[in-house]
Amino acid sequence: xxxxxxxxxxxxxxxxxxxxxxxxxxxxxxxxxxxxxxxxxxxxxxxxxxxxxxxxxxxxxxxxxxxxxxxxxxxxxxxxxxxxxxxxxxxxxxxxxxxxxxxxxxxxxxxxxxxxxxxxxxxxxxxxxxxxxxxxxxxxxxxxxxxxxxxxxxxxxxxxxxxxxxxxxxxxxxxxxxxxxxxxxxxxxxxxxxxxxxxxxxxxxxxxxxxxxxxxxxxxxxxxxxxxxxxxxxxxxxxxxxxxxxxxxxxxxxxxxxxxxxxxxxxxxxxxxxxxxxxxxxxxxxxxxxxxxxxx
Length: 296
Hints:
This protein is mainly α. It is 67% helix and 0% strand. It has helices at 2-27, 42-50, 58-66, 69-79, 94-119, 128-152, 157-166, 169-178, 188-209, 214-222, 237-249, 265-270, 274-283, 285-295.
């Protein structure tokens, strides 16, 4: 019918307009300038900076964390997870909890708190379902990265967790900008092109401002490049993120990966096949779930 055709054409035009407007918006932001996510609590920014200061220790961190009861709860939940507290002897005080989780996982707890605050903000209500889906995948990717790093590599498991948690931070920033151009989210192809083009530079800028170490920044910027060239065959953090991202993305339909996994260099460097992945996820099911819930 002519009316329906016109309506479809009109929507397509609006989608194209919003996609072009979003790209122009993103292009106008200098990635090497300080970039921050909207609505991130000041306490989180302060903690990120403190955790990068070699002069700062637990005595300086505990009073700052204590200002925010929700963050205290997250740190305690992380410290009591099956992955970090296999004896299940309850840790009830913040100082002991911080000692147990370490600085990298403390960063992760603070970032998780910030993301939860951001997702509840009024200005993101129209994109909240997209934001929660992105954060859900980040939580799963972090937990799976932790387990893969611990079992199959020499990479620090806490840094793998933080990298997994941050893997979508550039996409999250783009999503907050897309809130002004909501029709672009109706076209997954157009929006996906923008994510692939702009994710890495914005992720790098945000993590640099938070003083996250360069290895994690590089891994987050490069995990989607499955053909990257590396020297040697020792798996690195980028391999862990790439593998975890694919595994989480194929949850419930792992066999869809079976035809391509042998051609993915990250799996080869990790010496992983789908059987090993599935066995590992099953064995670590409780740990993964605990870690995921601690940051969700």
